[in-house]
Every structure is written in structure tokens, then in C-alpha cells.
Amino acid sequence: MTTPESIKKIVELLLVSNNITALTGAGVSAESGIATFRDPEGLWAKFDPLELASIDGFMSNPERVWSWYQYRVNIVNNAKPNKGHYALAEFNKLNMNFNLITQNVDGLHQRAGSENVIELHGSIIRNKCFSCNEIHEEEILSENLLNYCKYCNGLIRPDVVWFGEMLPEREIDKAQKLASKTDLFFSIGTSAEVHPAAELPIISKREGAVLIEINPLKTQLSEFADIRIALPSGEAMPLIIEEYKKRVIK
Fold this sequence. Notes:
Layout: H1 3-16, E1 20-24, H2 26-30, H3 49-52, H4 55-60, H5 62-78, H6 83-94, E2 98-102, H7 108-112, E3 118-119, E4 122-129, E5 156-160, H8 169-181, E6 184-188, H9 199-206, E7 210-214, E8 227-229, H10 233-248
Parallel strand pairs: 1-2, 1-6, 2-3, 6-7, 7-8
Antiparallel strand pairs: 4-5
Helix pairs in contact: 1-10, 6-10, 8-9
């Protein structure tokens, strides 16, 4: 099936589906210039990711971990949503039955206009207490200063999921329920290697959903996809949404 044929087929499915779910991964953020934490650059390249994104790493050297996250937050703050983000946000407004789940922590979906995004791995622009989990969105942290919780005096840490940590129970529960009841599931820009997020497309497929993969690279999920578009989301999603709008906006 050619790409134009695939897009027309996807639009036909969008028009008849009652529940639509999308899972986005690092490939979507990469189009905005955000590398994954597995690919540190410059002076950070000498560190093992476990030293920068784990409880053990934080406990042994919280200043270094905060310095690393300040570096990443600056990258995120300077990044802009791309065409893929905006297309998903537009579809979010056009279809009330659309749900967006992301593995990304950069908040670019929300900046593009998406609402009620399920953030499986947390948010790098949000902080929480290491001890009591109280959210500290208002804290401004510098790489030279450790902040402490105003409620329990615990160290404040980034509100992201580190290596070895469980995903937030509420978020993964929501995501699994959506995957199990959806008619149409999009896997967009994700390697399908990070669990338990990688299980969501399989759950949807097992429950009878049509599975669509949008990724320029083949993944472990590719053989299970009913439709696969080998393009970045910033190219594929605008084409899909424009075709969809032709059918629903008169």
C-alpha cells in the first residue's frame, strides 16, 4: 500500500472509530531537536545514563543530577513544537474521542495545544519531593543550589521516571484502560522497546483495535501493525489531519 493509499485508509478508519488513542515516543521530540537522555552530548557524554537518571545517581551526587537536568530543561525551553505536535493537537480539538499518551517528558504536546495528555514518564518541567512526592511546580532550581520541600524538608527532584522506577500508577492504569477499549491505536515515533509503554499497542491489538505505526524506522511493533507509514510524524500526521478535515469540515 502506498503512502497516499495508507493515509486515505487511515482517514476512513478515523471516520468510523468511536475511540482513538495515540502513543508518542522520542522520535516525535527528536524532530524538535530534543535528543533522548540515552544520547547525552558534550561534557555529559562521559557519564553513564544511570549516573544521571536513577535514584542511586541522585543519592550519590544530587548536584550533578540537577546540573544535568538544568541542561536538559534549557534545551526543552528553547525547543518548539513541530508539525507532528500541532497536527495531533488539532485532531484533539476536532475529535472528542481522541486520547493522547506520551512517553516524552518535554511538555511539547501541551505547548502545541493538546489537552489531557497522559504523561507516562512524568514531566521535566515539573518537580516533586523525593520523600513525600509533593509537587513543586513553582520551584526555580539552579545547578548550584539544592532545594528542599517546604512540607517535609526532603530533597526536591525532577518529576520524571528514572531507571528502575515504576511508572505513575494512575497514568499507566489510564493508559492500559484506553488501550483495551480503543478501536484505533496509533504508535507514533516510539521504538516499542521501553516497557510497560511498549505493551500498550499489543494490548489494543489483542482487544481488536486496528494498529497503525508511524515511524521512519522499523521496530519490534512493525510486524503487528495493520498499517505502517514509514515517515516521521511531522510529515505523516499533517497529511492525515488535512485529509481528515476535508471529510469532516464542509
